[in-house]
Specification:
The structure is a single chain. The relative contact order is 0.10. The protein has one domain. By secondary structure, the protein is α/β, with parallel strands linked by helices. Helix 4 (128-143) crosses helix 5 (148-158). Helices cover 41% and strands 17% of the residues. It is globular, with a radius of gyration of 18 Å. The strands form two sheets. The protein has a four-stranded mixed β-sheet, sandwiched between helices. The chain has a three-stranded antiparallel β-sheet with strand order 1-2-3, covered by helices on one side. The chain has seven helices and seven strands. The protein has helices at residues 2-9, 50-65, 107-113, 128-143, 148-158, 160-163, 174-191; strands at 13-16, 22-28, 31-36, 71-74, 95-98, 118-122, 166-167.
Length: 193
């Protein structure tokens, strides 16, 4: 639970829900940000197994369907196809921040399953710092009512090495970005001949 200390150092207060979940709260000029942490016990490699894995998946599904939950943040291994949890009962306009390894690989499927949802996903290997930086920048930016482009720019300033690994509403679609980069490279090669 080392991530909790990171938020407490940023001025968040911590309480506990009736179910025993830590809650981080901070006010941003009249907008109260409330982050409920649900913790799961993994095996020796921190993978979720059996009943604990099912509890995790059930909780995500419930949050995706709950209109009072505006966003879901995942900090886990890439052992589940999170796109399988999106169905016709998913609440529209949900924010999903998934820092698991290569979660962006499912972006096309996720956008098809929930066109109105906003996805912030990892293009490479996940790690705690990347997840913490992304969560802080995104949720605090939204609480301060910044536009997505402003959040992306702030993320690049706040955490340049980790922001480059995140695909979000401020970045072009990954496949489109690769196509543009390929065209530029081809153009540069032709111009240099």
């Amino acid at each position: 639970m080392g991530y909790l200390s990171r938020f407490l150092a940023r001025g968040y207060t911590s309480t506990i829900t009736a179910e025993g979940h830590p809650v981080l709260t901070k006010d941003f000029n009249g907008t109260t940000l409330r982050l409920v942490s649900k913790l799961y016990v993994g095996d020796e490699d921190e993978f979720l197994r059996g009943a604990e894995a099912q509890r995790f998946l059930n909780s995500i599904t419930k949050d995706l369907r709950d209109p009072s939950v505006q966003g879901v943040v995942l900090r886990n291994h890439a052992q589940f196809r999170i796109s399988n949890l999106f169905d016709a009962k998913t609440n529209p306009n949900k924010l999903m921040l998934d820092g698991a390894c290569r979660s962006a690989w499912d972006l096309k499927t996720l956008r098809r399953k929930c066109p109105s949802c906003l996805f912030i996903l990892n293009t490479g290997t996940g790690r705690g710092k990347l997840n913490n930086d992304a969560v802080i920048t995104v949720v605090e930016g939204l609480a301060r009512q910044l536009e997505w482009q402003e959040i992306g720019a702030e993320f690049a300033r706040f955490a340049p090495s980790t922001s480059a690994r995140i695909q979000g509403p401020w970045t072009p679609p990954f496949a489109e970005a690769l196509r543009v980069l390929g065209e530029r490279e081809k153009s540069d090669l032709q111009g240099g001949s």
